[in-house]
Amino acid sequence: MVAASGSTDAPGPAPAAPGHAFGQRTLIEWCLLLAAVLALVVLAARQGWVERADLAAYDIAISAQHHPVRGDIIIVGINDASITAIGRWPWRRAVLAQLVERIAAGRPRVIGVDVILSERDTRYPQDDAVLARSLAQAGNVVLPVVAESGPAGLLVRYPLAGLGAAVGHINMVVDTDGVARQVYLSEGPHPVAAAGVPHLAAVMAAFGRAGEPPGIARQEPARITEANGWERSGRLRIPYAGPPGTFARVSARDVLDGRANPAIFAGKAVLIGALATGMGDVLPTPV
Question: Which residues span the membrane (predicted)?
């Protein structure tokens, strides 16, 4: 039967409900937003934005902390005044021996010597034996270990055999922005469990004390093995106590010439290190 209007067309589909169309549009918008967020996250990771933000937050937190100055740590600095009085670096090892003896007379808990002693003294070969006797007599000295490149990858350079001291590595981790914030508590050829060297600071902290040194419980236990076979474990963010000058200092010159009373070292952790202009490595820190 033909409709009264004379039209023979079949009826078209019913229009979509307004709510259904709105729901589809909202879903598309959320998908686009999610894709944009994911792309931004990937870009941020590639550009290092996330890492830089994390480092900046750490720097702010460290700077905002106010630690009480510890009285059980003292630095014996080989400073400009010491170089002027005693002579240019490197000093004779007999002088280092005398410095250790003067400090040891005050009965410190431990003495760290941040001076590389991996090669024999060719100018004064007899001085090696003099230094060895002083270290052995003190009985609580820690010497640094360094890593150097060799034909088979990184190699550990230990202090001279016969010096009779504990050892610890002194490597620092420099972040992508050039600031030193971290150390690994153990480093060495793979497997580090068999050939690893603990950090000098950890060795000093544990010297003469039972249990773990402070801060060890906050380390990250994951191990990293590099392509050259060098392995690191126990990453630790350094809880900096404060800016330079936070810890007590005394000039090596004052120790050697008797101006510094050895009693100031009693029971303390003493670190002998370079403070003179142009000596040693200077790394930026968060404080």
Answer: 27-45
Helix 93-104 vs helix 126-138: crossing angle, to nearest 10: 10
Assess contact for 272 and 95: CB atoms under 8 A.
no
Among residues 218, 208, 133, 202, the alpha carbon closest in space to that of 170 is found at 202
Residue 247's CB is within 10 A of a number of other CB atoms, namely 16
As a whole number of angstroms, the distance between CA 212 and CA 220 comes to 15
Query: Residue 164 in contact with residue 172, Cβ under 8 Å?
Result: no
Half-sphere exposure of 74 (CA within 13 A, CB side): 23
Residue-wise pLDDT tens digits, 14-59: 555 555 555 566 777 777 777 777 765 665 555 555 667 777 787 7
Domain-located, residue 29: yes
Rounded to whole angstroms, the Cα distance separating 238 from 236 reads: 6
> What is the Cα–Cα distance from 31 to 127, expressed in whole angstroms?
75
In terms of Cα–Cα distance, which of 213, 197, 217 is closest to 205? 213
pLDDT, tens digit (0-9, with 9 covering 90-100), for 69-103: 778 999 999 999 999 999 999 999 999 999 999 99
229 located within any domain? no
Cα separation of 137 and 165, whole Å?
A: 10
Residues 46 and 143 in one domain: no
pTM exceeds 0.70 for this model: yes
CB-neighbour burial class of residue 10 (10 A; exposed 0-12, middle 13-18, buried 19+):
exposed
Check residue 59 and give left, alpha or beta (phi > 0: left; psi -120 to 50: alpha). alpha
Let me know if residue 279 belongs to a domain.
no
Inter-residue contact 235 to 219 (CB < 8 Å): yes
Q: Which two tokens stand for residue 185?
A: 């508590």
Same domain assignment for residues 259 and 119: yes
